[in-house]
Amino acid sequence: MDSDYLTQSPYTTPGPRLDALVGPAPLPRDPAALAALVRGVLLHREEGGHFGYEVPEERMREDAESRYAEDVLRILAERGDTPLTEAREPAARFVATCRDFALLLCSLLRATGTPARLRCGYATYFQEGLNDNHWVTEFWTAERGWVLADAQLVGGVYDISFDPMDVPRTEFLVAGEAWRACRDGRADPDAFGVSTVPEIKGWTLVRADVVADLAALGGVEPLPWDGWGLMEKDHADVTEEELALVDAVAAATSAAGRAAAARRPEAVRRLLDDPRLAVPSEVVSYTTYGGVRRVTLPEPVRG
Q: What is the domain extent for residue 173?
């Protein structure tokens, strides 16, 4: 298949440890089986209680700062030698954020021949009344086009009423849809936030997530707390011209999920060339436990 989203980015590249971790049996090609695999080796850093496990502080602090799928697999190899296809006890898992679930699933889908990409947006299914900042995977099917999948939900850990391999777009809003709803007056910007940090919410967050989602569509899958350029401005300082630019990004990224091909949409390509939106070589990372850092990024791979 001819698809930009079969090509691994520097962030999703699994690296040399994948074959050793898989063992003698090949990776499954079925997306649901791959999502179950991811769920079996990752533990969200906020869900230790679900598993009766107290996550060590250093893993809370360090694991989720792993920017690359290759590093996730390296840490898994250090914590056990069971095949990747076997679910692990919590102590042998990688301690993740939602972005890590999405990243590893995307990596494995690409590695086994399914076009996939990360999407940044908001989940309705974690906390009632809150559209919670979240990352999921979007994968391509010949029958239906782009489908949303949330590997974090696989296995019954969370109480949901839908298939986690077919998340309704009413239950997960890509960031562009959230922005458009707020701009049209259909939604309150303060209803979009981060459940673990209640003060992070509103226009500034949604605008930043629109830019982050564009970056992910362009082959740069940032950490949830990375920032650059237009993401960094206070809402009161954003000009009308910049608001119109975010409107254009929101329209393009929203439409990307309805695209009739597995290629990168032309509107997304054009926007990625705009210096106000392009991901710079260095970003500011507002890490949860390690303070503010400046991070140099690798060059993205773009078709």
A: 4-296
For 72-81, give one letter per residue: b (16+ CB within 10 A) or e: bbbbbeebee
Q: Tell me whether residue 302 is in a domain.
A: no
Interstrand relation of 145-149 and 172-174 (parallel, antiparallel or unpaired): unpaired
Domain assignment present for residue 301? The answer is no
Closest-CA residue to 132 (of 173, 187, 181)? 173
Question: What are the pLDDT digits (tens) for 84-137?
Answer: 999 999 999 999 999 999 999 999 999 999 999 999 999 999 999 999 999 999
Global pTM?
0.96
From first CA to last CA, the distance across the chain in angstroms is: 14
Q: Is residue 303 part of a domain?
A: no
Instruction: Name the residue type at position 67.
Output: R
| All residues at 6 or more sequence positions from 213 whose CB lies less than 8 Å from its CB, including other chains | 119, 120, 121, 174, 175, 176, 253
In tens, the pLDDT along 236-267 reads: 999 999 999 999 999 999 999 999 999 999 99
For residue 148, is it within any domain?
yes
**Reduced 3-state DSSP string for 86-152:** CCCCHHHCEEECHHHHHHHHHHHHHHCCCCEEEEEEEECCCCCCCEEEEEEEEEEECCCEEEEECHH
Number of domains in the chain: 1
Number of neighbouring beta carbons within 10 Å of residue 118: 24
